[in-house]
Amino acid sequence: MNKINFPSINEQMDLIKRGTFEIIPEEELVKKLEKSLKENKPLIIKLGCDPSRPDLHIGHAVVLRKLAQFQSLGHQAVLIIGDFTGMIGDPSGRNVTRPALSLEETRIHGQSYFEQASKILDKEKAIIHYNSEWLSKMSFEDVIKLASKYTVARMIERDDFTKRFKAGEPISIHEFLYPLAQGMDSVAIKSDVELGGTDQKFNLLVGRDLQREYGIEPQIILTMPLLVGTDGVEKMSKSYNNYIGLSDTPADIFGRTLSIPDSLIYTYYELGTDISNEELLKVKAQLNDKEINPRNIKRDLAKILVRMYHSQEDAIKAEEEFDKIFIKKEVPDEIPEIIFDNSINGINILDLIVKVNFSPSKGEARRLVIQGGVSIDGVKIEDIAASISIDKPIVLKVGKRKFVKIICE
After folding, report:
1. What's the CATH fold of domain 337-408?
2. Torsion over CA: 327, 329, 332, 338 (sign)
3. CATH of span 238-327
4. Nearest to 93 by CA among 192, 213, 178, 190
5. In the structure, what pLDDT confidence band is assigned to residue 96 with cuts at 50, 70 and 90?
């Protein structure tokens, strides 16, 4: 094996601990790193991927960035696509049974996950496994033996199971199998370290326990904080509409970043970017300086995020476009066009909003009009019964960022 240029233990631990919530146990990680250095052998760093979410946001990227940091230190990143466990459904953080997916659905979502994760990871050096490779081969006898290694009492220690049990909510037996099946992933690849969000701590510890049961040196658990969404209240999630997607347009990434509360600026820099620890200290100093407007620090953050997932050129253009729309109150240079036939002329404003797919329903369109979020050629539409004439091209704006030019022919 070629000599790997591992950084010193102190340098590795400084990077590993950045933004990390918990390392279990930290002293064992140091020993593993020392052994890795001595034997010139990379550690196996595992990240299990939930295939129920095909679209990733920067909340998901927090743990992916930590995996990429391990790659930069010379260690082996292993992504486990949970195509088999996805058919069970992860109960973590759930107060109801999670719907299971088909194997085909989990495979499709898993491929999408990897394509988006490749924006962060060195995909040429990452190893990908689908856990059906080993879990689908287990016999019923194997499953019974696996289940015998964990007690119901231990399972009920898990917060979400405890809450559901006390509330009289149903817990299916197959849900107990999820953490065991995920733990078998750690046994199969003999992982040295497993990464996950704080909500995954129980599952990760089960993997550590099962490795011990199967005579494998137990993995280290490293948990990362759950990133709070742009609303500053709930964890980042598409269901809360408080997310910044990895595949979002530069304009959306820029605009959504500027919408975060000032209290989250440092956290987003720390967990969402790759700036150095020295630069992080500068950001903290700027935030504590009453002479500096936090908005300017936030704009720099927005440009960094756009550059990370697109390019420097896109970051500059996104900032210019944002200023044009929100400060100068102008129409963007490039907006989509829709051509309708003349029968659309004289259409109700609510029907028009739905027709151009700016709202899923007339009820939602009504709310947008009432809240003052709809305009035609810069003129606010306040009447939900307004009839819109399209005898010449018009520009419809809905909300802060949705523009479309409508032409009748």
Report:
1. 3.10.290
2. positive
3. 1.10.240.10
4. 178
5. very low
